[in-house]
Write a structure and sequence with these properties.
The protein contains one helix and nine strands. It is mainly beta and 213 residues long. It is globular, with a radius of gyration of 18 Å.
């Protein structure tokens, strides 16, 4: 198990594009070494007992995938600092203890996949639904009592989430459960059926409004 990002990595920093550290539950205390590996495009720090987003991430401007699953994150207040990661398209934060998703999630404009499953979320900020490129949202295993209101979704779909407002979709509300899987669907152009899944299984949602085409 590691207590710090190995200094030896600096010797190959110019050619290193992917770094995986699975620390088996031991706390990774010093991450300043990450600042020198500026060409990283994929970073995994799992089971490192991280309780906050590391400040060293701000230097990794080429990062496309950030995987911090299986840690001890409770707050995501530092999300605003990730505004410099303009290529970040995949953010995995499953199996943490996140209590709230801050409105600053809206600065992550390149996000296509956001995994927040198995946390302790009780609500979702409207800013989440301003992410134009978001194609997959995983929310299973949280404490969400309800889905976004029809007023919120229709407003965002017509003004800030264009792929929810294509003439062939005419979406009015978030809609339809596929069997009992807990997959909520939203129309997109990418899926052959016109829908991509939003997974909200194992939450507290009791009623879904029907999709009206």
């Amino acid at each position: 198990m590691l207590q710090r990002v190995p200094s030896e990595l600096c010797e190959v920093a110019g050619s290193l594009v992917k770094l995986e550290i699975h620390n088996e539950g031991a706390r990774l205390l010093v991450l300043t070494g990450l600042k020198r590996i500026v060409d990283l495009t994929e970073l995994q720090l799992q089971d490192c007992q991280l309780d906050r987003l590391p400040s060293a991430l701000l230097a990794l401007t080429h990062l496309r995938t950030l995987d911090l699953q299986h840690n001890n994150l409770r707050t995501l207040e530092e999300l605003l600092g990730l505004v410099h990661l303009q290529r970040l398209s995949c953010l995995k934060l499953a199996y943490n203890r996140v209590l709230a998703l801050p409105p600053t999630v809206g600065v992550l404009r390149a996000l296509e996949l956001l995994d927040l499953s198995n946390n302790q979320l009780k609500s979702l900020p409207p800013a989440l639904f301003t992410l134009h490129r978001l194609r997959r949202l995983l929310l299973a295993g949280n404490l969400l009592p309800e889905l976004p209101s029809e007023r919120t979704v229709t407003h965002l779909s017509s003004n800030r989430w264009p792929h929810l407002n294509k003439p062939t979709n005419k979406i009015e509300v978030f809609a339809a459960v596929c069997g009992t899987s807990g997959c909520l669907y939203k129309p997109t152009e990418a899926s052959p059926c016109g829908f991509d899944p939003v997974d909200f299984s194992a939450n507290l949602v009791q009623v879904l409004a029907p999709y009206r085409a």
